[in-house]
Amino acid sequence: MQEFIEQTYSEYTEEDQKVWSVLFNRQMDNLPKMASDAFIQGLEKIKFGPDRIPDFKETNMHLGKCTGWQVVAVPGIVEDQTFFQLLSEKKFPATTWVRKMSELDYLEEPDMFHDVFGHIPLLTDQHFVGFLKKMGELGLKYLGNERAIDILSRIYWFTIEFGLIKESEGNRIYGAGILSSSGESKYSLSGAPQYFDFDVRKILHTTYRKDKFQEMYFFIDSYESLYNSIEEIEIVLEEMVSGELV
Questions:
Q1: Domain spanning 9-242 has what CATH number?
Q2: What does pTM read for this prediction?
Q3: 205: closest CA among 177, 163, 240?
Q4: d(CA 186, CA 192)
Q5: Residue 109 DSSP label
Q6: DSSP labels, 62-92
Q7: C-alpha distances in angstroms, 173 versus 94, 109, 127, 238?
Q8: Phi first, then psi: what are they for 82, rounded to 5°?
Q9: Number of CB atoms found within 10 A of residue 31's CB
Q10: Helix (H, G, I), strand (E, B) or coil at 33
C-alpha cells in the first residue's frame, strides 16, 4: 500500500482558506435546492462551513459517531489496491492540497475540495457507506482482473462520482464530481443530458469522459436501493469470470 501523509493544518495559506471559502459559498448558493437531502444533512453533521478548511481530526470525530468511517490523508490519486483496501476498512482517501484561485473552475486532478466537500458529507449515510465498503471488498477480490476492475470503475463513476437520486422534492445530486463543480451542478439537472434509471448492465456498456460534462446520468431511487444493487454487481462479476458475460 502507498504511504499515507498527515494533514498539516498549519501549512494552509491565506489563499488556501480563501479558495475553500469561495468554492464553498458558490456551491451552497445553489446546492440546497439541488443536492440530496442526505448530503445537506451530512454537511451539518460533520460541521463543514465556509469559514475554514475542515480539519480531518475533527471531521473523523463526527464521522465516527455517525457511521464509524474515517478520512485518510493521501498525497494524490492512489493505486487500486490501496483504494479498495481503504474502502473495505471504512476509510476514505482524500488529498490535502487546495487548488489556486486561478484554478477555481477546472483541475485535471481532484483537489481536497472535490475529495472533502464532494465526498465526505455522504459518509454519514449508513446505506451509502455500506455500498462503498462492499465495492472495496469486491475490488480486492478481483484485483488484477482488468475487466472486473473496469466494471467496478464504471459503476463507481456513474454513482459515487456522477450519480443522481430521485427524492420526494424532485431530482437531486449525490455524485461528488457534480457536487464539487458549479458548472456541472447546474448542467446535470438542466434537462440537456440523457437520463436513465440505475441499471448495472447498461452501465457496463456505457463509456465516460473525464474532460467534459457527462452526456448521460443514472438515477437511483434511494441509498438503500444503491446498497442492494451490490447483489446484482456480484452476479455480473461472477458471470464475467465464468465466461457467461458478453
A1: 1.10.800.10
A2: 0.94
A3: 240
A4: 10
A5: S
A6: HHHHHTS-EEEE-SSSPPHHHHHHHHHTTEE
A7: 20, 21, 16, 31
A8: -60, -45
A9: 21
A10: helix
